[in-house]
Amino acid sequence: MPTSMSSAVHDDVERARRELHDAGISALRGAFTPEWVAQLREDVDTAFEEARSREGGAVGRGPQRWYVELHPQALRGFVELVDHPWVRGVCEAVLGPDYQVVEIGFDTPFPGAEHQPWHRDFPSPRETREERRLTSLAFNITTVSTTDEMGPFEIAPGTQWDPGDDFDHGMFPPRSRYPDFEAVAERKYPKVGDISVRSALTVHRGTPNRSDVARPVVVLGVDAPGAGNHEHHDPAVTRDYWDALPERVRRHLCVAVVDELTPITQKHTIEGLVMGEG
User: Fold this and answer.
1) How far is 236 from 73, CA to CA, in rounded Å?
2) Is there a contact between 27 and 197 (Cβ–Cβ < 8 Å)?
3) Fewer CB in a 10 Å sphere around the end CB: N or C, the chain?
């Protein structure tokens, strides 16, 4: 644990560490102000329009679901996000002091989005299978207060420890396993200002969006050293942006520093999600 952490944040971080080990997911309510989230939503909407205007800018995650990866400075609140005491504390407690921020993007289920198949985001690594050690985390920040009609995120607690030996590509469990996940599944209903953190290995799925509004969720991906997920992502920042960052943010960013940003072409298409469940 960071020694400079306040006792209240320390307690919240310790609770998150325990919940990540036991359930594979945790959350902090009211981490950000509604105004900060409203600004985040503005930036997400702008980025989505730009990404959809070019090939490879947005990738499908099922019918009426899209994922867009961003450069950090596309979000005006990026520094406030990665420098939030709870975010920093959870990363350090679970991944170690040399954790790396490897991804920032957002996932949006639009009206008409259907069930996704149960899945995890990548195969379980040796450290998790053999040592019961998590090597990556995904933080989610909702831009809307979620209702059941919006297609809430659904997760099967405890499945981060499933070795996935019978999973297709190490990610997609056979349909014969679905009743096991559905028996323990929990739907999550975050409100504006909340942030959650989960293991990307905890089996989960998106549910149908029967509302008339989109539900964008910002995703921050963080690795322990050597986890290797940075190979799927191409975040970059300009030199002036990099120079203006606090040192404690710079030391954890796995990004290229460039003179001029170029749009990201997605590398990590999860083929098994493209068609959804129907």
Assistant:
1) 9
2) yes
3) C
One-letter amino acid of 163: P
Going along the chain from its start, the domains and CATH numbers come out as: 7-272 (2.60.120.620)
| Residue 211 Cα to chain centre, angstroms | 23
Residue 202 token pair? 């905890």
- Per-residue CA distances from 89 to 241, 245, 255 (Å): 24, 19, 21
1 has a pLDDT exceeding 50:
no
CB 142 within 8 A of CB 190: yes
Q: Are 96 and 225 in contact (CB under 8 A)?
A: yes
- CA dist 61 and 49 (Å) reads 17
Alpha helices for the chain (secondary structure H): 7-22, 34-52, 78-82, 85-95, 126-131, 178-184, 239-244, 247-250
Burial class (CB in 10 A: 0-12, 13-18, 19+), 79: middle
The alpha carbon of residue 66 and the mean position of all alpha carbons in its chain are separated, in whole angstroms, by 14
Taking each continuous run of H as one helix and of E as one strand, the counts in the chain are 8, 12
Residue-wise pLDDT for 11-56, tens only, equals 999 999 999 999 999 999 999 999 999 999 999 999 999 998 888 7
Query: What's the rounded Cα separation, in Å, for the pair 77 and 87?
Result: 14
Which sign does the torsion angle of CA 166, 229, 274, 213 carry?
A: positive
